[in-house]
Specification:
With about 240 residues, the protein is mainly alpha-helical. The chain folds into 2 domains: about 70 residues, no CATH class; about 130 residues. It is built from 11 helices and 3 strands; from the N terminus they run αβαβααβααααααα. The chain is elongated and about 80 Å long.
Length: about 240
Protein backbone atom coordinates (compact mmCIF):
# COMPACT_ATOMS: atom_id res chain seq x y z
CA UNK A 1 0.00 0.00 0.00
CA UNK A 2 2.76 2.44 0.95
CA UNK A 3 4.64 1.58 -2.24
CA UNK A 4 1.53 2.40 -4.24
CA UNK A 5 1.06 5.71 -2.37
CA UNK A 6 4.68 6.70 -2.93
CA UNK A 7 4.37 6.01 -6.63
CA UNK A 8 2.41 9.28 -6.89
CA UNK A 9 5.17 11.39 -5.31
CA UNK A 10 6.48 12.43 -1.91
CA UNK A 11 4.33 10.95 0.87
CA UNK A 12 4.18 13.64 3.57
CA UNK A 13 1.33 12.47 5.78
CA UNK A 14 -1.71 10.20 5.79
CA UNK A 15 -5.24 10.99 6.94
CA UNK A 16 -7.22 8.21 8.63
CA UNK A 17 -10.81 8.19 9.79
CA UNK A 18 -11.93 6.21 12.86
CA UNK A 19 -8.37 5.60 14.05
CA UNK A 20 -9.74 4.44 17.41
CA UNK A 21 -11.88 1.65 15.93
CA UNK A 22 -11.93 0.39 12.33
CA UNK A 23 -8.80 2.31 11.42
CA UNK A 24 -6.73 1.23 14.44
CA UNK A 25 -4.83 -1.49 12.57
CA UNK A 26 -4.03 0.83 9.68
CA UNK A 27 -2.89 3.52 12.16
CA UNK A 28 -0.42 1.14 13.81
CA UNK A 29 0.90 -0.01 10.44
CA UNK A 30 1.52 3.53 9.20
CA UNK A 31 3.06 4.67 12.50
CA UNK A 32 5.51 1.76 12.45
CA UNK A 33 6.51 2.88 8.96
CA UNK A 34 7.43 6.28 10.44
CA UNK A 35 4.89 8.31 8.50
CA UNK A 36 3.03 11.24 10.04
CA UNK A 37 -0.62 10.43 10.63
CA UNK A 38 -3.55 12.77 11.19
CA UNK A 39 -6.98 11.62 12.23
CA UNK A 40 -9.67 13.12 10.03
CA UNK A 41 -12.47 14.04 12.37
CA UNK A 42 -15.34 14.28 9.91
CA UNK A 43 -16.04 14.63 6.18
CA UNK A 44 -17.40 17.90 4.85
CA UNK A 45 -21.11 17.82 5.69
CA UNK A 46 -22.12 19.92 2.69
CA UNK A 47 -20.34 17.59 0.26
CA UNK A 48 -21.67 14.52 2.10
CA UNK A 49 -25.26 15.75 1.69
CA UNK A 50 -24.67 16.63 -1.95
CA UNK A 51 -22.92 13.42 -2.98
CA UNK A 52 -24.23 10.95 -0.43
CA UNK A 53 -22.19 8.23 1.31
CA UNK A 54 -19.41 7.12 -0.99
CA UNK A 55 -16.21 5.35 0.11
CA UNK A 56 -14.13 6.72 -2.78
CA UNK A 57 -15.25 10.27 -2.05
CA UNK A 58 -14.64 9.81 1.70
CA UNK A 59 -11.08 8.63 0.99
CA UNK A 60 -10.46 11.60 -1.30
CA UNK A 61 -11.88 14.00 1.31
CA UNK A 62 -9.65 12.48 4.01
CA UNK A 63 -6.60 12.94 1.79
CA UNK A 64 -7.45 16.59 1.11
CA UNK A 65 -8.09 17.22 4.83
CA UNK A 66 -4.75 15.67 5.80
CA UNK A 67 -2.91 17.65 3.11
CA UNK A 68 -4.44 20.95 4.27
CA UNK A 69 -4.36 19.90 7.96
CA UNK A 70 -8.04 20.80 8.15
CA UNK A 71 -10.62 18.98 10.32
CA UNK A 72 -7.80 16.85 11.70
CA UNK A 73 -6.27 16.00 15.06
CA UNK A 74 -3.21 14.06 16.12
CA UNK A 75 -4.45 10.51 16.79
CA UNK A 76 -3.91 8.82 20.10
CA UNK A 77 -1.00 6.46 20.25
CA UNK A 78 -2.24 2.95 21.07
CA UNK A 79 0.98 1.18 21.93
CA UNK A 80 1.41 1.99 25.64
CA UNK A 81 -0.12 1.25 29.03
CA UNK A 82 -3.02 3.61 28.38
CA UNK A 83 -4.19 1.23 25.66
CA UNK A 84 -3.98 -1.61 28.19
CA UNK A 85 -6.02 0.53 30.56
CA UNK A 86 -8.62 1.20 27.87
CA UNK A 87 -9.30 -2.44 27.02
CA UNK A 88 -9.50 -3.37 30.71
CA UNK A 89 -11.95 -0.51 31.34
CA UNK A 90 -14.12 -1.66 28.43
CA UNK A 91 -14.10 -5.19 29.83
CA UNK A 92 -15.00 -3.91 33.30
CA UNK A 93 -17.87 -1.81 31.97
CA UNK A 94 -19.50 -4.77 30.25
CA UNK A 95 -19.00 -6.95 33.34
CA UNK A 96 -20.70 -4.33 35.53
CA UNK A 97 -23.61 -4.15 33.10
CA UNK A 98 -23.94 -7.93 33.02
CA UNK A 99 -23.83 -8.11 36.84
CA UNK A 100 -26.56 -5.49 37.11
CA UNK A 101 -28.75 -7.42 34.67
CA UNK A 102 -28.18 -10.66 36.61
CA UNK A 103 -29.28 -8.95 39.84
CA UNK A 104 -32.38 -7.49 38.21
CA UNK A 105 -33.40 -10.90 36.87
CA UNK A 106 -32.82 -12.47 40.30
CA UNK A 107 -35.10 -9.88 41.91
CA UNK A 108 -37.88 -10.27 39.35
CA UNK A 109 -37.62 -14.07 39.46
CA UNK A 110 -37.98 -14.07 43.26
CA UNK A 111 -41.09 -11.89 42.99
CA UNK A 112 -42.71 -14.56 40.80
CA UNK A 113 -41.40 -17.55 42.75
CA UNK A 114 -43.64 -19.82 44.84
CA UNK A 115 -44.22 -18.62 48.41
CA UNK A 116 -42.26 -21.54 49.85
CA UNK A 117 -39.13 -20.23 48.10
CA UNK A 118 -39.80 -16.52 48.32
CA UNK A 119 -40.71 -16.04 51.98
CA UNK A 120 -37.36 -17.11 53.55
CA UNK A 121 -35.52 -14.70 51.24
CA UNK A 122 -37.41 -11.51 52.11
CA UNK A 123 -35.21 -10.10 54.91
CA UNK A 124 -31.80 -10.90 53.45
CA UNK A 125 -29.25 -8.31 52.34
CA UNK A 126 -28.11 -8.42 48.75
CA UNK A 127 -24.97 -10.48 49.32
CA UNK A 128 -26.70 -12.76 51.86
CA UNK A 129 -29.33 -13.43 49.22
CA UNK A 130 -26.81 -14.06 46.45
CA UNK A 131 -24.67 -16.41 48.53
CA UNK A 132 -27.73 -18.29 49.81
CA UNK A 133 -29.02 -18.85 46.29
CA UNK A 134 -25.58 -19.89 45.04
CA UNK A 135 -25.35 -22.48 47.82
CA UNK A 136 -28.67 -24.13 46.94
CA UNK A 137 -28.51 -27.72 45.71
CA UNK A 138 -31.50 -28.18 43.41
CA UNK A 139 -32.36 -31.51 41.84
CA UNK A 140 -31.17 -31.02 38.27
CA UNK A 141 -33.25 -33.99 37.09
CA UNK A 142 -36.49 -32.40 38.33
CA UNK A 143 -36.36 -29.34 36.05
CA UNK A 144 -39.93 -30.05 34.80
CA UNK A 145 -41.31 -29.17 38.25
CA UNK A 146 -41.98 -25.45 38.75
CA UNK A 147 -40.44 -25.07 42.22
CA UNK A 148 -37.28 -26.94 41.28
CA UNK A 149 -36.99 -25.00 38.02
CA UNK A 150 -37.02 -21.78 40.07
CA UNK A 151 -34.28 -23.18 42.31
CA UNK A 152 -32.15 -24.09 39.30
CA UNK A 153 -32.65 -20.69 37.68
CA UNK A 154 -31.95 -18.68 40.84
CA UNK A 155 -28.84 -20.70 41.66
CA UNK A 156 -27.54 -20.20 38.10
CA UNK A 157 -28.18 -16.44 38.24
CA UNK A 158 -26.54 -16.13 41.66
CA UNK A 159 -23.44 -17.99 40.53
CA UNK A 160 -23.26 -15.75 37.47
CA UNK A 161 -23.49 -12.68 39.71
CA UNK A 162 -20.66 -13.92 41.96
CA UNK A 163 -18.44 -14.80 39.02
CA UNK A 164 -18.92 -11.32 37.58
CA UNK A 165 -18.36 -9.79 41.03
CA UNK A 166 -15.00 -11.54 41.30
CA UNK A 167 -14.11 -10.64 37.71
CA UNK A 168 -14.79 -6.95 38.38
CA UNK A 169 -12.63 -7.06 41.53
CA UNK A 170 -9.75 -8.59 39.56
CA UNK A 171 -10.10 -5.95 36.82
CA UNK A 172 -10.17 -3.18 39.44
CA UNK A 173 -6.86 -4.43 40.83
CA UNK A 174 -5.29 -4.34 37.36
CA UNK A 175 -6.71 -0.91 36.56
CA UNK A 176 -5.49 0.50 39.88
CA UNK A 177 -1.99 -0.88 39.29
CA UNK A 178 -1.79 0.77 35.85
CA UNK A 179 -3.09 4.10 37.16
CA UNK A 180 -0.51 4.04 39.98
CA UNK A 181 2.24 3.29 37.47
CA UNK A 182 1.22 6.07 35.10
CA UNK A 183 0.12 8.86 37.45
CA UNK A 184 0.26 8.02 41.17
CA UNK A 185 -0.19 11.70 42.03
CA UNK A 186 -3.70 11.65 40.56
CA UNK A 187 -4.99 9.29 43.22
CA UNK A 188 -3.53 11.54 45.90
CA UNK A 189 -5.74 14.46 44.84
CA UNK A 190 -8.94 15.24 46.70
CA UNK A 191 -12.14 13.92 45.09
CA UNK A 192 -10.32 11.93 42.38
CA UNK A 193 -11.05 8.24 42.71
CA UNK A 194 -9.81 5.30 40.69
CA UNK A 195 -12.39 5.54 37.90
CA UNK A 196 -11.97 9.31 37.52
CA UNK A 197 -8.18 9.02 37.38
CA UNK A 198 -8.41 6.22 34.83
CA UNK A 199 -10.76 8.25 32.65
CA UNK A 200 -8.44 11.26 32.72
CA UNK A 201 -5.58 9.07 31.55
CA UNK A 202 -7.74 7.58 28.80
CA UNK A 203 -8.76 11.02 27.60
CA UNK A 204 -5.15 12.22 27.44
CA UNK A 205 -3.95 9.01 25.80
CA UNK A 206 -0.44 7.56 25.52
CA UNK A 207 0.77 10.71 23.75
CA UNK A 208 -0.56 13.66 25.81
CA UNK A 209 1.94 15.96 24.08
CA UNK A 210 -0.59 16.18 21.23
CA UNK A 211 -2.67 18.38 23.56
CA UNK A 212 -1.01 21.75 23.14
CA UNK A 213 -2.84 23.60 25.92
CA UNK A 214 -5.37 23.33 28.73
CA UNK A 215 -7.99 24.65 26.32
CA UNK A 216 -7.38 21.79 23.88
CA UNK A 217 -7.79 19.26 26.69
CA UNK A 218 -11.03 20.97 27.77
CA UNK A 219 -12.30 20.83 24.20
CA UNK A 220 -11.45 17.12 24.03
CA UNK A 221 -13.52 16.58 27.20
CA UNK A 222 -16.33 18.72 25.73
CA UNK A 223 -16.16 21.13 28.66
CA UNK A 224 -14.58 24.10 26.92
CA UNK A 225 -16.06 27.53 27.66
CA UNK A 226 -18.66 28.77 25.20
CA UNK A 227 -17.82 31.71 22.99
CA UNK A 228 -20.09 34.51 24.17
CA UNK A 229 -19.93 36.21 20.79
CA UNK A 230 -21.63 33.24 19.13
CA UNK A 231 -24.61 33.03 21.44
CA UNK A 232 -28.04 33.88 20.09
CA UNK A 233 -29.31 37.30 21.23
CA UNK A 234 -32.04 37.25 23.82
CA UNK A 235 -35.43 38.26 22.44
CA UNK A 236 -36.88 40.88 24.81
CA UNK A 237 -39.73 41.85 22.52
CA UNK A 238 -42.27 40.17 24.81
CA UNK A 239 -41.45 42.70 27.55
CA UNK A 240 -42.64 45.66 25.49
Amino acid sequence: MLTWMRSFGDLQRIGIECSGSYGAGLLRYVQVAGIEVLEVTAPDKHDRRRRGKNDDFDAESAAHAAFAERHTVTPRSRDGMVESLRVLKVCRKTAVQARRIALQIIQTTIVCAPDKLRDPLRQMTRMQLIRTLAAWRPDLTAYREVEEAYRIALKSLARRYLELHDEIADLDDMIEAIVKDLAPELLEQTAIGLNSAAQLLLTAGDNPERLKSEASFAALCDVGPADRTTREPIDDSSKH
